[in-house]
Amino acid sequence: METAQPSPLGALLVRTHYEFDKLRFMGPTRHTAEGYAHFLGTQLDKPDVCVFVADLDGEVVGYTYAAIEPRDWMALRDSAGAIYDILVDPARRQHGVGRKLLDATLEFLKERGAPRVVLSTAEQNEPAQRLFEKAGFRRTMIEMTRETTS
Q1: E strands of 1-108, at which residues?
Q2: Which terminus of the chain is less hemmed in, N or C, by CB atoms within 10 Å?
Q3: CA 104 to chain centre
Q4: In this predicted model, what pLDDT tens digit does every residue of 88-147 receive, in sequence order?
Q5: Are 64 and 52 in contact (CB under 8 A)?
Q6: SS3 85
Q7: How many other CB atoms sit within 10 Å of the CB of residue 145?
Q8: The CATH number, out of the four listed (3.20.20.70, 3.30.70.60, 2.60.40.1180, 3.40.630.30), of the domain defined by the range 47-141
């Protein structure tokens, strides 16, 4: 297994989602970058998983994390490619990095036989939703959350 370096982009992903909805998403800690990097490191040797990075002059400016998932009776979904994360450094957005990462990820999943690709995006993340819609994704599910303490 490859050793992963701390992931500032992974930490940014956690912080961003937490800011969207502090009750729904896990909160960042001082160990988030290391924890996220460790988690991604556990995925690297799996044949149907991809972690792609966008590198600009030796600096990681974006990444995707995706995999092939089997039929899921709970989700009522046949086998599919699943994109779990796609993130571009905010300073590098609007230059096609996200689209290139998305296209490479879609190609990886297609090459492994995925008949479809699914993903989730935060309700408030309209820029990501526009990227996905331009790439041909359509809305199919709406996640709703309720706290049990309500």
Answers
A1: 49-56, 59-69, 80-88
A2: C
A3: 13
A4: 999 999 999 999 999 999 999 999 999 999 999 999 999 999 999 999 999 999 999 999
A5: yes
A6: strand
A7: 8
A8: 3.40.630.30
